[in-house]
Every structure is written in C-alpha cells, then in structure tokens.
Design a protein that fits this description.
Radius of gyration: 24 Å
Structural class: alpha+beta
Order of helices and strands: EHEEEHEEEHHEEHHHHHHHHHHHHHHH
Shape: globular
Number of helices: 19
Largest sheet: 6 strands, mixed
Distance between the termini: 47 Å
Strand order of the largest sheet: 1-6-7-4-3-2
Strand content: 5-15%
C-alpha cells in the first residue's frame, strides 16, 4: 500500500476516515495479478500446505500462544508465493464438530475490510482445526501501549486506533457478525503500513467450553458474569475497556477508572506521556465516550455506529500516514528474530509443566549459591533447623509431585524468614501452576526475580504464569528477558 493505490487498497490520505470494504482477488494462489498485498479469496487449505508453510509447526514460527493447559497457538507461515500468513491452530477439543467449524469459518471468511486482519482460509483434517488469516507484521496494540521501546503512542494515533476499531465493529455488525469474543488490546494488530486492524479470530465461536472471556474478571462485562452470554452490548463494554487502555497507557480495571471519572479526576487517568498533547475538551470527550460504553446497564451503552460518528469528529492529523505517527519506517515489519530458547524456556513457552518440573528437579539449588543469608548464632540455634526441615519436606513433596504439600511446606519455610531462596520461590511457583493458581505463581516468580535479579529461571517462570493468565505478549517479553540473561551468563 503506502504511496500507491490498487483496486484493493485504500489511498487513505485522500479520505483517511472512511472504512474500506475489500473485494477478494480472483486468484487465491497469487493474490490476484501477482499482488501479494491483495486479499485472496477464502478457501480450504490442506494440512500439508500449512505444515510446509510453518516448517512443520516448529516453535520458531510461533508468534503468540494463548496460555491454557491445551493452548491454541498462532504461527507465522509463508506460502510458496511469498505471502505471509497467520495460522491459528486450535487444541483438539475446541471444535469436535467439523461441520460447525467449517460453517463458522466460511461465515467469517465472507468478511472483507481494511479494518480487519481478514480470514483467508481454514483447514479441517481429522482432529486438526486451523484458521488462516492475513499476517500483520507490526505487533499488537498491547505491545505499543504497554511495552513500547522507542516512543509511546501519540494522541493522534490513539484517536485513530479508537476510530478504526469502532469502524471494524460497525462493519462486522452490518454483516451480521456483531458478536466479538474477548475484545482486548491483544486483538488489535498493525499491518505493514502500521494501520490498526481487528483480528478476525475473535469473530469465531469456540465450541469447546463456551468461554468468551479469558481476561481478568475485573474487565468482563457485568451481564456476561450473570448470564455467560456475549451480546452486542458486551462487545461495546469491552470497547470501553480498550478506550481506557488508550487513555491511560495501562490496563486499568473499569471500576477504578469510573471512580476517578465520577470524582472529576479524569486527568489522573491520562497517560503522563500525553501531557500537553491534547486539549481538555478532547480528553473530556474521549473519557465521556469510554464511560458511556462502561455503563452497568447494557441498554444504556452506545452502538458501534454512534461511536464511529463521535470518534470521527475527534480525529487529528488525518493527512499523516499511520507509520509516521507510530514512528515505524514504512515497510519495516517489526518482527522479532525467533528466540533461541533453552530447554526450560522452551518448556515454559509450550506450558509443558511436567518438563518444567523435571528441569527444576535436575537444577536443584545450584543457583542459590551466593544469595546472602545473614543469620545470627541465636537464629541458627532457635529457628534454622525448623526452616531446613520445612524446606526438606517441601523438596520431598515436590519430588513426589505432591504439589499441595509442597506449597504448604515451602510457605512455612518462606514465612519463617530465616533464609531466602529463589529456588524455593521457583518451586512453589510451579506448584501453584500445577494447581491452576497462575496469579499466585506469577507472584512467586516475581519474588524469585527480586531475590536474584539476573536469574533467567525467574523470568522463564514469569512467562509461564503470564501465558496461563492469557497475557501472551507479556509472556513473550519475559521469555526474551530470560533468554538474554542466559546468553549473557553463558558468555562469562
């Protein structure tokens, strides 16, 4: 796209704010007249094609992984014509009915818009269920808001993200696909021109367990908590939580944000990086829109069409291309090199808790060497033996995979306070993960980092806990940190 127009692309600097409906190319193999930017027609892929595109679904090709016990993994793939694709591979229990899966995929595959990362195909082969979409090379909204490196997202771009997202929801609603499952900042992706697009994967129903929200309950629409059903109004509520993300640069629970808004303290809500870059009127209007979306009563929330109208009037710097607003050179796909993971890093990425257990057992306590434990003689005589006994009992339970007992014993050791051991925190972290307690596991992994700031294992276990919480991008960042620390350690 960029400085040229085709019949499939929107020359948006002439009319940047109009949503564009794309027509699929007539040639699914080459994207229509050999243009790889054109959106190919929706079609069925063979399992062999997708295996070839991903080098056999190797871990090097994983771009995100939803952290559950049986995760749905997204891979980057490359077709023979050089087109990059995103492939979502569901766990084997997600879609037991192949006909239902194919019908859903075809309905979503009928959509074509430059506000979507469009679905271009599917594969249903035996137990395998896979979706194929356009690949978006410039990361997620969560990355650019919460984990930015060179510069924070500016005000004009945040307004554009809000508008484009509202336009995506309005388009989907006009095509009879108004329900979007678990709308959050990880579902907004940036294309080769750094324009934000909504992932099509959230338009698919997941028939495995009926869950539509994997995020923290603090961000879940109140009516979903009551009924377990997603409605159009639920999607608008989630849109409101994303507007809070855009305003604050953080993932703030709606209840806390609404308290600030009711107290006329909305400036406390704003990202400090934005200070001096927006008018009070614009800030007040965006806060007003967010609070309308977050109304407790679903019927009091606006619809997508009215959101588009309201956001259209707020747009700034409409003639500036998105890649300039984002500070990303055009055509520069911000794709990280595949991480060279250690066995522990690989196990944490795959959420293979059994393999993590084996590795932690093998490592033992060798990484505790050099940890300062200043103890008086009195503490040695009065408390040390009890602490060592609790640790010994915890180790025995950990070895025997009695993780409840391990948690109890390690807790007694930690609470005693006579010794500090990052390994004990790591072992209790895994024990929490084995008991499906990821929040507690994350706390222990972070405590291990506090005790031993340069310990790669602490970062790897943080990644595992974050994946379990559905915080995939944060998990990838922790994996990267652990890998870098391990590389540094191996140099010395």
């Amino acid at each position: 796209m960029g400085g040229r127009c085709s019949r499939f692309s929107l020359c948006w600097w002439h009319s940047p704010l109009k949503p564009s409906v794309l027509q699929p190319s007539s040639d699914p193999e080459n994207g229509g007249q050999n243009d790889k930017n054109a959106v190919p027609s929706f079609r069925e892929f063979s399992l062999e094609e997708l295996q070839a595109a991903t080098s056999g679904f190797t871990s090097d090709n994983i771009v995100s992984e939803h952290g559950e016990k049986a995760p749905n993994v997204v891979y980057k793939g490359t077709l023979p014509n050089g087109r990059s694709i995103a492939i979502k591979r569901f766990n084997k229990s997600a879609w037991p009915d192949s006909r239902q899966f194919i019908e859903e995929a075809r309905l979503v595959g009928n959509l074509r818009s430059e506000r979507l990362a469009n679905l271009i195909g599917y594969c249903s082969d035996g137990d395998e269920r896979l979706l194929v979409a356009e690949f978006m090379p410039n990361d997620t909204l969560a990355k650019h808001l919460f984990h930015w490196e060179s510069q924070p997202m500016n005000w004009a771009m945040r307004l554009r993200v809000a508008l484009y997202l509202a336009q995506a929801l309005e388009y989907c609603s006009s095509k009879g696909r108004s329900l979007y499952h678990d709308l959050n900042a990880y579902r907004v992706l940036f294309d080769q021109d750094s324009n934000p697009r909504l992932s099509c994967f959230g338009l698919m129903k997941n028939s495995r367990d009926g869950k539509s929200y994997s995020t923290n309950l603090a961000f879940t629409p109140p009516e979903y908590l009551r009924t377990g059903r997603v409605t159009q109004e639920s999607v608008v509520y989630s849109f409101g939580t994303m507007m809070l993300d855009l305003l604050s640069g953080k993932h703030i629970p709606p209840s806390h944000a609404l308290d600030l808004i009711r107290g006329k303290n909305f400036l406390m809500l704003m990202d400090s990086c934005l200070e001096g870059h927006f008018t009070n009127d614009d800030g007040t209007e965006l806060v007003r829109l967010a609070s309308r979306c977050l109304q407790f009563e679903a019927r009091e929330r606006p619809n997508a069409k009215s959101l588009v109208t309201s956001l259209m009037s707020l747009q700034k710097e409409t003639e500036v291309p998105s890649h300039q607003l984002m500070g990303i050179p055009q055509g520069n796909a911000n794709v990280a090199e595949p991480l060279m993971l250690s066995p522990l890093g690989e196990s944490c990425l795959r959420m293979d808790l059994t393999a993590i257990h084996e590795i932690l057992e093998k490592i033992g306590y060798k990484d505790d060497e050099g940890i300062a434990n200043e103890l008086s003689f009195q503490m040695w005589t009065d408390q040390m033996q009890d602490s060592l006994n609790y640790k010994k009992q915890g180790d025995s339970a950990f070895r025997a995979k009695d993780f409840n007992m391990a948690i109890d014993c390690y807790t007694q050791f930690i609470d005693g306070g006579t010794m500090v051991s990052p390994t004990v925190f790591a072992r209790r972290c895994l024990s929490y993960l084995m008991n499906d307690m990821p929040q507690e596991a994350l706390g222990d992994a972070m405590q291990a980092q506090v005790v031993s700031p340069e310990w790669p294992t602490a970062f790897y276990l943080q990644a595992a806990a974050l994946f379990s919480l559905g915080m995939d991008t944060d998990g990838q960042e922790s994996l990267k940190d652990g890998t870098n620390l391990e590389a540094e350690r191996n140099k010395n």
